[in-house]
């Protein structure tokens, strides 16, 4: 029995192969996949898995009240297309359709084509056969929900607050609506919201809890509202609707430090006052203007335009000033006034007081603290070394100290010596290589020049004596040398007193 069944099946297959009949299937799809009220495209898809089909004709028509086929921008109820021939393979025909309302619509299709029972049919009508296919297409047209989101979302760094979003359904009815949020880094939005049914035209207030981290930079961001829902026919959709999220802050400038160049200032001296401003707020400070107020004994720059300063940054600016000659030593009160704006144009005003200390110049007192010769006993025309010990017994440093000798007649050699700076309480030695003149006592003047901290130049003149011994009294040299040493010592003691 089983063998008989297989034999019949094989025979049927061979008979079908011999007949060469086309095998055409009809399918369809829409663009978009889930059409909504309005215009959409219907594609009728034909697939031939058999022999050659010729003169394919397709007729489509509808009898619905709220549906129409579009032909040359006109609404019609019936369309006829000639699709030509189709060998094994696929082809399609597309139609533009307009739906006035949501619903389930039926379209009727009639497909007609020719084929031949043998190969000779391609050149004659011998063996020509006609086949027809009638089918009905069902199309679901939904009035797709369409959500619109409104509301201002404005928040500061380190802030937590509830903002209200107004969401309206401008399309068809929606079911099983879920609202969630995508936020930029550092921003958290909660909670999600679920609505079982959201009717067409219905508007709802959706409260959203927003939390912003303190490190988030101010600026414009996007809060993405994700709405997932089903239409009335169960089609699923997800809409992503961007909402402007503005994170704004307030700038705050503080005086983070100040310094003087040079570090110590004196009356009748110029200096630069350097001030440092730091933005410890949460927004950029713009159009920064600084104005310096100081006592009348100072004069110089008062106003500066500093531009903009981002948060967590520091800007430094210098004011060139001068203290007058009659400026008293001690602390003087300065005030810095700062005006600036936020990125929203809000104005801010700050003032900072700080002391500026003016040092006392003191005095410079330069003296010759010692006079030495080498050798100690000098004869006429001898070469000898004269050393002068210069001491600063004042309380101010001396600058550019130099010594110039006014030599007596007959003396020759180096007349000047440069020491440089001589700090308060220090001493230095000026050395001169000289040639002695005639025997006897000789008075020498030393002109000591120096400058103070304001680079003003001064001179003092000191006078001392040296003795040149005759060569015939060389036996007296030791005694006289001793007397010379005692004389220099006595001179030094009297000068110190």
Provide structural commentary.
The chain is mainly beta and 497 residues long. It folds into four domains: 18-141, Immunoglobulin-like, CATH 2.60.40; 147-247, Immunoglobulins (Immunoglobulin-like), CATH 2.60.40.10; 253-358, Immunoglobulins (Immunoglobulin-like); 366-496, Immunoglobulins (Immunoglobulin-like), CATH 2.60.40. The chain has two helices and 34 strands. The strands form eight sheets. A five-stranded antiparallel beta sheet has the order 1-2-7-4-5, with no helix packed on it. The longest helix has 20 residues, at 477-496. The protein is rod-shaped and about 165 Å long. The N and C termini lie far apart (152 Å).
Largest sheet: 5 strands, antiparallel
H/I helix tally? 2
Q: What fraction strand?
A: over 45%
Counted up, domains total 4
Mean pLDDT: 87
CATH topology of the largest domain: Immunoglobulin-like
Q: Rounded to an integer, what's the Rg over CA atoms? A: 55 Å
Going by CATH, what is the homologous superfamily of the largest domain? Immunoglobulins
Which structural class is indicated by helix and strand composition?
A: mainly beta
- The CATH top-level class label of the largest domain: Mainly Beta
Tell me how many strands there are.
34
Unreliable segments of 5+ consecutive residues: 12-19, 119-126
Net shape: rod-shaped
Helical proportion?
under 10%
Straight-line N-to-C gap: 152 Å
Strand order of the largest sheet: 1-2-7-4-5
Q: Which CATH-level-2 architecture of the largest domain?
A: Sandwich
């Amino acid at each position: 029995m089983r063998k008989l069944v297989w034999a019949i099946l094989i025979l049927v297959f061979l008979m079908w192969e011999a007949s060469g009949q086309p095998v055409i299937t009809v399918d369809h799809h829409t663009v978009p996949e889930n059409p909504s009220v309005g215009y959409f495209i219907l594609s009728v898809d034909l697939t031939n898995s058999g022999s050659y089909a010729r003169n394919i004709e397709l007729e489509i028509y509808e009898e619905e009240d709220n549906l129409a086929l579009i032909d040359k921008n006109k609404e019609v109820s019936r369309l006829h297309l000639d699709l030509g021939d189709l060998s094994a393979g696929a082809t399609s025909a597309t139609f533009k359709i307009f739906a006035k309302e949501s619903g389930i619509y039926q379209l009727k299709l009639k497909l007609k084509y020719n084929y031949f029972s043998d190969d000779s049919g391609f050149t004659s009508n011998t063996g020509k056969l006609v086949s027809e296919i009638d089918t009905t297409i069902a199309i679901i047209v939904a009035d797709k929900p369409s959500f619109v989101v409104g509301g201002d979302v404005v928040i500061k760094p380190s802030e937590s607050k509830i903002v209200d979003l107004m969401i309206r359904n401008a399309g068809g009815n929606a079911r099983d609506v879920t609202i969630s949020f995508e936020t930029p880094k550092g921003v958290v939005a909660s909670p999600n919201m679920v609505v079982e049914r959201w009717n067409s035209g219905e508007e709802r207030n959706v409260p959203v809890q927003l939390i912003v981290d303190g490190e988030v930079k101010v600026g414009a961001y996007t809060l993405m509202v994700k709405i997932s829902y089903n239409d009335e026919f169960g089609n699923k959709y997800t809409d992503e609707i961007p909402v402007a999220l503005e994170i704004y802050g307030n700038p705050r400038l503080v005086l983070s430090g100040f310094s003087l160049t040079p570090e110590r200032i004196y009356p009748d001296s110029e200096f630069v006052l350097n001030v440092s401003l730091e933005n410890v707020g949460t927004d950029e400070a713009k159009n920064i203007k600084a104005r310096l107020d100081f006592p009348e004994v100072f004069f110089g720059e008062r106003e500066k335009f500093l531009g903009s300063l981002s948060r967590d940054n520091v800007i430094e600016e210098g004011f060139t000033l001068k203290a007058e000659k009659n400026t008293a030593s001690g602390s003087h009160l300065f005030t810095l006034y700062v005006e600036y704006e936020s990125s929203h144009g809000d104005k801010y005003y700050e003032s900072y007081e700080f002391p500026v200390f003016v040092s006392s110049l003191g005095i410079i007192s330069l003296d010759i603290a010692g006079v030495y010769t080498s050798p100690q006993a000098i004869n006429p025309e001898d070469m000898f070394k004269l050393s002068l010990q210069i001491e600063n017994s004042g309380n101010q440093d001396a600058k550019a100290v130099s010594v110039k000798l006014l030599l007596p007649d007959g003396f020759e050699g180096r007349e000047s010596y440069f020491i440089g700076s001589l700090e308060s309480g220090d001493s230095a030695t000026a050395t001169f290589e000289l040639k002695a003149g005639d025997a006897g006592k000789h008075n020498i003047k030393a002109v000591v020049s120096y400058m103070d901290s304001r680079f003003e130049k001064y001179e003092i003149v000191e006078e001392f004596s040296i003795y040149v011994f005759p060569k015939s009294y060389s036996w007296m040299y030791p005694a006289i040398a001793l007397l010379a040493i005692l004389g220099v010592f006595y001179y030094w003691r009297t000068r110190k007193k």
